[in-house]
Amino acid sequence: YMGDPHTLHRYFCASGSSFPSLPNSPFSPTTANANETTFFAMGRSLDFIITAHKNDPEGCSIRMWDLASIAGNIVSVSDSGIHSRSMIALLRKFVAFKSVSSNPNNVKDCFNAAAFLKSVLEQMLTSFSVKMIRSSSRVNPVVFAYLATCPAAPTVIVYGHYDVVDVQKGQWQTDPFEMSGRDGYYYARGTTDNKGPIMAVVHAIYELTAESKGKDLSSKLPNILLIFEGSQETDSGGIYEACQELDYIKGIDKNNATILVLNTYWLGDNVPCLVYGLRGIVEWEVEIEGASRDLHSGIDGGLVQEPMQDMINLLSGVTDTGGRCLIPGWYDDVAITNSEELDKLFQDLKRDFSKEKYKQSRGIHKLQGRMIKDANDTDILKCLWLEPSLTIHGIHSTACDYSLIPSTVSAYISVRTVPNQDPSALDEKLQSFLYEKFEKLESGNELRVSCQKSVDWWQGDYKNKFYAAAHKAILEIWGQDPLYIQEGGTMKNPLKDVIDCPCLHLPIGQGSDGAHLPNERIRWENLVKGKGVLKSFFTNLAVIHDSV
Hints:
Blueprint: H1 7-13, E1 38-44, E2 48-56, E3 59-66, H2 67-75, H3 79-95, H4 107-124, E4 129-133, E5 142-147, E6 155-161, E7 180-182, E8 185-187, H5 195-212, E9 223-229, H6 239-244, H7 247-250, E10 257-261, E11 273-278, E12 280-289, E13 295-296, H8 297-300, H9 307-315, H10 340-348, H11 355-362, H12 377-386, E14 389-397, E15 404-405, E16 408-417, H13 423-440, E17 446-455, E18 458-459, H14 465-478, E19 483-487, E20 503-505, E21 521-523, H15 524-547
Parallel strand pairs: 6-9, 6-10, 10-20, 11-19
Antiparallel strand pairs: 1-2, 2-3, 4-5, 5-9, 7-8, 8-21, 11-18, 12-16, 12-17, 13-15, 14-16
Helix pairs in contact: 3-5, 5-15, 14-15
């Protein structure tokens, strides 16, 4: 049972209607009035509902109902229930595409996923202009859908991605590309990142257009532009070029627009959130090269300065035992974050976060960090969101067994940056520190340090009208105020060079969804209520325009 309070339940029990007969189904029950039996259990799949009864003429019975045969009876009770079933059915098809953008063998799968999404948009959002643009054969297509309801209305640019990360074989309980449901969750690669949220927003817009019944949409929707790319998990290649081909993007008023991102997650599992900050990232490769080939440790060990030993000596002085970076000037530009307003936001986070719960969920026994000593729950989150962190991800060598001395050793380092740190300044500080320390080792080996990637941190204005509309929508659908959170992770804004307008991160999934991990999932309730939040959000913005 998927936890769905399906409309059929209300149709049978609340309305007292007759059970419909299914003459064309091998499972057709005898027609009986709902009041003549006691309905005591229900289970459902995408196509059938199973009901259990007692006190009917045959004693206890189990009946299977074909949803397709009785859909007409249900629509009068709740169109939204049918649309939610459509959302799940389409999501099942969507996740079946192995749209792994990092794997060249999945190029066709990515294209087919984009074509499927385009077809869904064309069939469901008939008022929209839908296009799929592939700027070159080296990039995946970008799918667009645009509707202008009123020139003076706000514009919401909904950003999402249909590509996914690869799966770890043997670590999934079920086929990662065949969606399965259990305990109220749907499991498959892409369910929460990001195919589930895409289906939620498409169905939210579809329901609003259906509710307008062909009348003016400006009372239901602001101007909307959907942009769904297929390379977010790699480098967002081709999205800028694709956007340049659409003239209506150039006409968007950036002072009356927002980029709505549905690609972040709640802090925990119980309270909906709005995200207003992300850390940045800078990545480096550190390489030490020695002999022209690997050497034998028995023949040459003790006579040569080994690259692996140099690497260990070099990296051992980057941080202290508490995780504090020892590179001079590393914290000079970190923004001062003490304020009464910020403290109030962080105190509210106790509704869905605790230090012990965090440790238990990560399987760790002790926390480190310069802010952690005697820290309370909210101090931990300040450390995670407002402090930079440096991580050594791995050390690799050319040697493949115990008898060899590797000729070359490589290490991968990254730092998560925070306001107001400058990535280029950090790059200069780290490289200067490592080269100076390496020189003191008096090694005959060669050191090379190169910056591989840089994405800036982000801070949003959580007091603007778009966040206010989202807050109101969450309160309406979930019955509670959202938490205002930041995230320790990083996300590049691929539309920054296209239209420089504020972003709004509105998470659909829970903190335990496991994006990028085995057994990725999303809760049925989050999908359906997430759809409801999006409907309310769009309507709230349309109402703001009408009231001006």
